Amino acid sequence: MRRTMRYRVARTILVTGVSFSAAALLVGCGGDPEAPPGTPSSVAATISTVAPSSLPPTTTVAPIPQADPEPVVTQVPAIDCGQQMQAPTDQFGSPMSSGTSICATVVECADISENYEYGTTRMSDGSLMYTDACYDYNQQQNAQEQAAIVDPGTTADRGYTCDEVQCTNPDGSFVPNYQRCGVACGEPPTSGDVQGGWVNCLDTGATMEQCREQLGN
């Protein structure tokens, strides 16, 4: 009786030990002892991924510096200041310049009180040339002088005498244009009268030939 009981206990321990070993084997291999047969284990189904930190770093290529283009040097030809400037011409086609250099600049307008023609300009090279700007200046200068004369009177009242060409003082000296009355007093025209006559004639729309006949020039 006791032998039989020992035999049963030993058998139970043996069977239990075998079952425990099998279960341990399944767990150690990643199996699930409660999973149905044919189910893949969670370990086998796990897909290993590679961490991004394990990838080789991206190589950045620095741009190649571009060399600055060589500056273009333009050769400027030297100016020959010995050449004369193309000067304006008068109504007869004659150049209104005493040989002004192409490098010369305007210095000042000549004063009509010095018996210069309207528009005469002193240039930096010492020459004289006509310019429209100085002509306008001389016109203004003449207008101011004429406005200062309240009563031009006559040539006799002025103390000098005139012929068909010019006026002279009692001592025989030439009377400058700025001191003369001109056409307004029955005298020969001054340079201002001549220039003003041309301007007035051309402003009417007449041609140069028509003005030349009209003014007698």
Gyration radius over CA:
60 Å
Question: What's the N-to-C terminus distance?
Answer: 174 Å
Regions with little confidence, pLDDT below 50 for 5+ residues: 1-7, 9-33, 38-48
Q: How are the strands of the biggest sheet laid out side by side?
A: 1-2-3
How would you characterize this protein structure?
The protein has 217 residues and is mainly alpha-helical. Helices cover 34% and strands 7% of the residues. It has helices spanning 2-28, 42-45, 132-148, 155-158, 191-203, 208-215, and strands spanning 106-109, 120-123, 128-130, 161-162, 167-168. It has a three-stranded antiparallel β-sheet with strand order 1-2-3, covered by helices on one side. A two-stranded antiparallel sheet has the order 4-5. Helix 5 (191-203) packs across helix 6 (208-215). The longest helix has 27 residues, at 2-28. The chain is elongated. The protein starts with a helix and ends with a helix. Residues 1-7, 9-33 and 38-48 have low confidence and may be disordered.
List keywords for this structure.
217 residues; 34% helix; mainly alpha; two-stranded antiparallel sheet; three-stranded antiparallel β-sheet; 6 helices
TL;DR of this structure?
This protein is mainly alpha-helical. It contains 6 helices and 5 strands; from the N terminus they run H-H-E-E-E-H-H-E-E-H-H.
